Amino acid sequence: MNTDFASSAYRHFLIWGVCSSLALTVCTIVDATLVGNLVGPQGLAVANISTPVFLLYALLGITIAVGANVHIGRLLGASDIEGANKTFHSALGLGLTVGILALSPLLFKDIYFSFLGVTEELYPIAEQYLTVVMWASPIFVIYHILSFSVRSDSDPRLSAIASGVVIITNIVLDILFMKILGWGIAGASSSLCIAEALGTVVLLTHFAKKHTLLKLRLALPSKKDAVDFVANGFGMGSANIFGAVVMLVFNTLLLKKGSYGALYVAIYGVIYTISTIPTGLFDGSASALSTVTAFLTGESDKDGISAVLKKALTVAIASAVTLSILAFAFAPALARFFGIKEDLEIALAAKAIGIFSLGIVFSAINTIVTAFWQSIGRAKEAATMSLLRNCLLLLILGSFLIPHSNIIGLSYSYVLTEVICSLGVLIIRVAKPSKKYICEKYKDDGRSIEMIYPMAPESMARISSDLESISEEWEINIKKTFVINFICEEILLNIIKFGLGETEKIKNEYYISIKLMEKGDDHVLRIRDNVNTYNPFESNGDEIDRGVLELIEKKTKYCDYQRKMIFNYLYLIL
């Protein structure tokens, strides 16, 4: 039971995290499929050339979101609600500022398009597609920040719902704009931007709910906040800007291949689109890990942190093996699905996809470990891994292999990069183990002990016996010992009576955690349970029950109920 809370939180956040991450994946696949089949290879090439623009917006949004929410998670875990809100407000202010600044390329479109690699032949289509996207830049940035923050504030389900709204809206409008109204490639960008705006509106509804800990406000970020957000979020967010740089370079190298250049870029677009499926799954798993682990560091739950990492790696590797086999086996069908028609072109695309699929398992390991390092404060290791994996190694290998082997060389570049980085992860694990780092950095200031019991009346005797032993060891006076024991027993009974339904009372999956901590002359009592949302101080008990709870409030210096992660928390200071 020592890691049951951490494991169940990860499972919950994993489900909704993957759903959230796959939103962009589904939108990318839908757009690529419709563009490839309705506009043709030129449209597919423009969509691929435009991908760095979306990656830039993701860099801005995710860097701020991850950097801020590493802090927010730790502060919520330590029950510093005011500090968490200050961080959130600064993140929103910074996100809106950089989102507005991201509109600036509209003032020099020709230069911007040339930088992206748009040729004279592709310019008319690119202008239609990108102009709409550039006007929506603030929405893309704010969406990422809100999505991460809503998850940190214990509502991953709403984040997933927002992603579902983005997916459904994008698909419906894609069909309407492109197929029915005949808007062409401009319809693809318009539908995605409208869908992202509606998803943002859905996320904003979170802040109208009763038990939210984060409140919606804007604040001007300090220089220190901005630096902290970038430092803590760059390891994950930088993958997007590095990916944009790599795509710009690789597209340029492929376009130099004369009449075959557009075909190679189109195949690269197919590979990139296919890669968003494993990337979405791994990012969802990494996001769940990052959210839960950051929270657990605030609680100094070292065993829970290790358990979450193990589960995240298991899920990611199992998914990667499955996807790798499927991509390799169905490579020709995938090429046809995205609008590549000629037999020779299909054979070339299938070979490139098959080679690329060999690196998926290594990609899973690298993604999870980078997110883990980021969440526990090893920002330098995370940033270094991201720089090597998403930029330097890829560029070095690609610059050598693409001129010699074209699109096949590109696939080998990705595979070799992931393999080399996984070897680096193994070396760092041996040389600088994370478990030692966690034990040194995240430990309670004073003495503390946590005990976990099944949610049942039979636990009363064990709780009483354990608390008496602790009180004797810590030399807590008899009066305070009685109060601590009384509170724990009454809260447990109250939850059993009113927090559990009749069918839930016979299950063995509900637990109560009691953590006692020394803070100077005071003792902090934290009671946590995994039943559905339930506040004992708002229960409908009889007069005796209400009187007992009122007595608890009077006998403590501080008493506060919070719903965090997927658990109920009661903090008391005696």
UniProtKB/TrEMBL annotation:
Recorded topology in the membrane: Multi-pass membrane protein
Keyword Cell membrane: yes
Cellular location(s): Cell membrane
Biological source species: Bullifex porci
Keywords, alphabetical: Cell membrane, Membrane, Transmembrane, Transmembrane helix, Transport
Gene Ontology molecular function terms on file: antiporter activity; xenobiotic transmembrane transporter activity
Protein origin, superkingdom: Bacteria
Name used for this protein in its record: Uncharacterized protein
InterPro entries the UniProt entry points to: MATE_fam (IPR002528), Membrane_Transporter-Flippase (IPR052031)
Cellular compartments per GO CC: plasma membrane
Stretches that traverse the bilayer: 12-34, 54-76, 88-108, 128-146, 158-177, 183-208, 229-250, 262-282, 312-335, 355-375, 387-405, 411-431
Main location group: membrane
